[in-house]
């Protein structure tokens, strides 16, 4: 029944993306093109990140937490933000409202991330006879990632696409964006530096993703009030 | 609406090939990356005149269970894992003799029996404990070898991984739930090829010839003394049959005796007027088939020149008493002479030696001792052994408990002294004189480190004859060693008697998987399905409103209203 397990983990990992697309008005306004374009921008960004990592990072023998290397990885992580900026601002989308634009971009981004990072381990590992909890935890991680990507896209659209923002909220927006952008480094530090186990790390990711989603939702609606 | 409608036929083709590829990939479910992989050794599979014995299957793919199963449970799809320490021989006997269905058997041997584990240090009480286990193992082996078992039987050594697995299985069994597809547990998988018959197994006899000093002008053939040892083994698990005592001790003794006499004979002044013939024969467990074929290949002159032959069988774990087994009656003059010679030397060495007479029955094909093959051709011969009774067929031929730890080098060294000294006194006609040819602290002393190093090598080499190829490295090593000592070495390859048929596949790897039950998967599917539904409803409510959610379920009716 190992293919069954693979199927279960697959719907946990990729199901929410499909559900999000069909449940929200995104499906009505046919924003699939935007999501696909965002996914391809993610692929390009991943390639650039790979090249930078290969060039600048040195391979450590032991699995310890090296602050300098982690700082470098965080800096390279900002290429992600640059990619998102490109996807949000530079690509020509059809006439869709800003509200739906960031959701579509975030969705496409998260879907590409899940496929690239989670599909191969799932295919190779979950089909074996041996049972581990890893793939279910990985699916939960993909869910958290989806929420984080959409919040980051929301904050990004606030930063770059909305011109009139209340002055007081601007630093908060930038701070939240910075936190969400450095999420991968934080989880890495938790796993390697503090030695947290995988379930604990996934729990932390889920919690922070919900918190950040709530905060960015509040910010978004707060910024929307003056214009409406 | 779809910009690629014009390219549809090509799209369909590529889609079909994609689907085909997906199906192929799906078909090969990988069985690698198991939690634990253990080396296992299969029970021997052989036929005697077409009657099958041993374990007839090699592939294994069943759930694991321990001895703590609920009585009356169906074990036909379970592999029962039994550590030898807790062996319940009645259970095994019941299942095998009554031919009850079983998925498979896995016996766990204590780590001490692992000859490949060189780092193991042995404590005194461990050796004592293993002594108790010897009798248990011997009984188990006898049962397994003479039974026809239609499922796979494997042996493995205890280690930490498999111990944790076993304790887990015992715990699960104690709750009364045997492991099946619906309740999870451990799955044992051995993917071994179908055991094939070994076509024309060869037995290899090695002989070494040390010529004596022939006086000038003497036309007669010098008399010969033969020392013969059979070097191959037969055991429950052929990959583990090292037979340190039966008959590794004999092989070591022969090599050392050959070395000593080659030193003596290297100088013409000390060369005796007897030729020496050393024989390393194969096919011992199978009624000394190899010896018979070897003797048949002798020409008449050589056969007539043999004064007597001494065969060595299991001389490694005795304390104070050895036996000389003969087939000619003890009143025979030659036998008397040989026995007296040995007794004199034995008295000097401080050990006892007894004479046992066993008549041969020509019509009975069973050959219990190697000297009987000589006696059937009217050559005087005797076997020196620590065993007082003739072993049954396939008994005392190097089983699981015939291990390095139970063999005593000093016993072998004393046996070597006994044999070498007795033969030397016969050759140089010093019978009854108080002269030691191979005295300690002389250049002809028995070399204990030579004995030890060869014994260590033998106790790490399984030597079941059908599984030794013609140019097996060990056989070549024996030949080379004998060439160092003897003047002329010949190797004879023969086919093993057609009565015995053997099957291969003796070693495999066991993969142990921890599997989740089907109920778990179904439960997970249920949970995930409800999670996705809840997520869907939540998103619809927050983004489109509750009315939209309700309208989703009323869509068919609303459409009817629209069309009407």
From TrEMBL, chain A:
It holds the Pfam family DUF2053. Keywords: Cell membrane, Endoplasmic reticulum, Membrane, Transmembrane, Transmembrane helix. It comes from the Eukaryota. It is a multi-pass membrane protein. It is found in: Cell membrane; Endoplasmic reticulum membrane. The keyword Protease does not apply. Belongs to the TMEM147 family. This is BOS complex subunit TMEM147. It comes from Hevea brasiliensis.
TrEMBL record, chain B:
Coiled coil: none annotated. PROSITE patterns: EF_HAND_1, PROKAR_LIPOPROTEIN. Pfam families: Nicastrin. Gene3D superfamilies: Zn peptidases. InterPro entries: EF_Hand_1_Ca_BS (IPR018247), Nicalin (IPR016574). The chain crosses the membrane at residues 522-546. It is found in: Endoplasmic reticulum membrane. Keywords: Endoplasmic reticulum, Glycoprotein, Membrane, Signal, Transmembrane, Transmembrane helix. The keyword Transferase does not apply. It comes from the Eukaryota. Residues 1-34 form the signal peptide. It is a single-pass membrane protein. Belongs to the nicastrin family. PANTHER family: NICALIN. This is Nicalin. It comes from Hevea brasiliensis. The lineage of its organism: Eukaryota, Viridiplantae, Streptophyta, Embryophyta, Tracheophyta.
């Amino acid at each position: 029944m190992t293919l069954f397990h693979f199927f279960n983990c697959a719907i946990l990992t990729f199901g929410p993306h499909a559900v999000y697309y069909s449940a929200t008005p995104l499906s009505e306004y046919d924003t699939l093109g935007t999501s696909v374009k965002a996914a391809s921008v993610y692929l390009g960004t991943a390639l650039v990140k790979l090249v930078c990592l290969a060039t600048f990072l040195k391979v450590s023998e032991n699995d310890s937490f090296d602050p300098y290397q982690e700082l470098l990885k965080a800096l390279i992580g900002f290429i992600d933000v640059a990619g998102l900026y490109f996807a949000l601002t530079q690509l020509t989308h059809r006439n869709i409202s800003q509200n739906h634009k960031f959701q579509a971009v975030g969705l496409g981004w998260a879907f590409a991330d899940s496929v690239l990072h989670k599909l191969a381990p799932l295919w190779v590992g979950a089909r074996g006879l041996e049972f581990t909890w890893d793939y279910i935890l990985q699916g939960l991680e993909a869910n958290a990632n989806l929420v984080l990507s959409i919040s980051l896209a929301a904050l990004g659209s606030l930063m770059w696409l909305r011109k009139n923002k209340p002055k007081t909220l601007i630093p908060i927006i930038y701070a939240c964006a910075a936190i969400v952008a450095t999420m991968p480094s934080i989880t890495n530090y938790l796993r390697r530096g503090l030695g947290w186990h995988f379930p604990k790390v996934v729990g932390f990711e889920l919690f922070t993703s919900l918190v950040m989603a709530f905060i960015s939702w509040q910010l978004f609606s707060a910024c929307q009030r003056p214009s409406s | 609406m779809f910009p690629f409608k014009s390219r549809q036929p090509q799209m369909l083709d590529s889609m079909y090939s994609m689907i085909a590829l997906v199906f192929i990939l799906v078909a090969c479910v990988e069985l690698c990356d198991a939690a634990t992989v253990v080396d296992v050794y299969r029970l021997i599979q052989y036929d005697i005149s077409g009657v099958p014995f041993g374990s007839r299957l090699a592939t294994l793919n069943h759930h694991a269970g321990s001895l703590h199963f609920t009585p009356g449970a169906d074990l036909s799809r379970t592999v029962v894992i039994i550590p030898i320490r807790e062996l319940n021989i009645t259970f095994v006997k019941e299942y095998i003799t009554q031919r009850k269905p079983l998925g498979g058997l896995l016996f766990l041997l204590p780590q001490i029996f692992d000859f490949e584990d060189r780092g193991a240090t042995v404590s005194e009480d461990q050796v004592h404990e293993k002594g108790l286990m010897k009798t248990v193992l011997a009984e188990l082996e006898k049962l397994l070898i003479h039974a026809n078992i239609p499922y796979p039987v494997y042996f493995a050594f205890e280690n930490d991984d498999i111990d944790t697995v076993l304790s887990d299985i015992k715990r699960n069994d104690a709750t009364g739930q045997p492991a099946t597809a619906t309740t999870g547990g451990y799955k044992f998988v051995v993917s071994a090829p179908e055991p094939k018959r070994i076509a024309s197994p060869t037995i290899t006899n090695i002989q070494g010839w040390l010529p004596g000093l022939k006086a000038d002008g003497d036309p007669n053939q010098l008399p010969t003394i033969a020392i013969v040892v059979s070097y191959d083994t037969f055991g429950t698990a052929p990959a583990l049959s090292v037979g340190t005592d039966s008959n590794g001790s004999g092989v070591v003794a022969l090599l050392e005796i050959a070395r000593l006499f080659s030193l003596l004979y290297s100088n013409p002044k000390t060369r005796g007027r007897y030729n020496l013939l050393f024989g390393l024969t194969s096919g011992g467990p199978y009624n000394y088939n190899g010896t018979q074929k070897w003797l048949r290949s002798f020409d008449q002159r050589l056969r007539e020149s043999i004064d007597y032959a001494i065969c060595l069988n299991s001389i490694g774990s005795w304390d104070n008493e050895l036996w000389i087994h003969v087939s000619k009656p003890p009143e025979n003059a030659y036998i008397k002479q040989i026995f007296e010679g040995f007794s004199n030397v034995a008295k000097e060495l401080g050990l006892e030696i007894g004479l046992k007479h066993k008549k041969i029955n020509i019509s009975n094909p069973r050959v219990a001792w190697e000297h009987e093959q000589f006696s059937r051709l009217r050559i005087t011969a005797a076997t020196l052994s620590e065993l007082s009774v003739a072993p049954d067929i396939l008994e005392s031929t190097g089983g699981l408990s015939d291990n390095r730890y139970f063999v005593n080098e000093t016993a072998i060294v004393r046996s070597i002294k006994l044999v070498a000294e007795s033969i030397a006194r016969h050759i140089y006609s010093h019978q009854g004189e108080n002269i030691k040819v191979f005295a300690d602290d002389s250049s002809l002393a028995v070399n204990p480190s030579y004995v030890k190093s060869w014994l260590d090598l033998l106790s790490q080499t399984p030597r079941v004859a059908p599984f030794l190829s013609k140019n097996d490295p060990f056989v070549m090593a024996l030949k080379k060693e004998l060439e160092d000592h003897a003047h002329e070495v010949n190797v004879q390859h023969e086919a093993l008697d057609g009565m015995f048929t053997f099957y291969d596949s003796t070693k495999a790897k066991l993969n142990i998987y921890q599997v989740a039950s089907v109920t778990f998967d179904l439960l997970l599917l249920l949970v995930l399905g409800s999670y996705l539904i809840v997520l869907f409803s939540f998103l619809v409510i927050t983004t489109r409103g509750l009315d939209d959610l309700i309208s989703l379920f009323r869509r068919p009716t609303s459409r009817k209203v629209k069309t009407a």
